[in-house]
Structures are given as C-alpha cells and as structure tokens.
Design goal:
alpha+beta
C-alpha cells in the first residue's frame, strides 16, 4: 500500500530525452498541419482559382452576386478593364469592380465538350 503513494515523478527513469523521442513529440504538429492543409487550405485555393478564371471569362448575360449581396446580370465586360457593367433591375445599370464579384451564378459560356456530345 505504501508504494501506491509514491509520486509518478520518482518512478520515472533518470535518463534524458533522446533524439528519437523529440522527433516523435514533433510529429503530431506536422500531422495536424498536413490535415489542415488538405482539408482547409487546398480546397480554398482551388475555389479561388476557379473564381478567378470565371471572373476573367465573364460575358454578357452571366448572372453574378457581388460581395455586397447584389444580384445582377452582366451587360458589358471588357477583358482589359477591372470594371463590369451590371444590370440590377430593369433599366438600372451599375459599374462594379471584378474583385467585388463573389459568385457567378449562371454562365452563358458553352462547356468545352459541348460540340463533342452534339456530334454523337
């Protein structure tokens, strides 16, 4: 019964931490970062890349949502300009910056393989 009361610190060996054990204590941090990268960072980067491509290919007739929550239809878009003319109501047009467009709801661009399915 008296051995039960001995603190755990006295029961441990007197040797210091070895090189292998310090690597093993660092391994969970690496694993957590890897999980965070594949579950959070990588998908977000893919979404940003896709949105950037959609913004670059905006055409007349595309429905968009701005960062402020305004839904509209693209009326005029120039490739070299950062401004896009958007109709938010009948005969109400505003100029918005491409960077403030958060979502492209519908696109009038044809899919790349649209002609291949039509030939079959």
């Amino acid at each position: 019964m008296s051995n039960f009361l001995i603190p755990a610190a006295y029961a441990q060996s007197a040797g210091g931490a070895g090189g292998g054990s310090s690597l093993m204590s660092f391994l969970p941090f690496v694993a957590v970062f890897a999980i965070m990268y594949f579950l959070l960072i990588r998908p977000q980067q893919k979404q940003q890349k896709q949105l950037k491509a959609e913004l670059k290919s905006l055409r007349r007739g595309d429905r968009i949502v701005t960062a402020g929550g305004v839904v509209g239809i693209v009326q005029r878009s120039k490739d070299d300009s950062e401004e896009v003319e958007v109709e938010i109501a009948p005969n109400v047009r505003v100029m918005v910056l491409r960077g403030t467009i958060s979502t492209v709801l519908t696109s009038t661009a044809k899919p790349a393989n649209d002609t291949a399915t039509a030939k079959k």
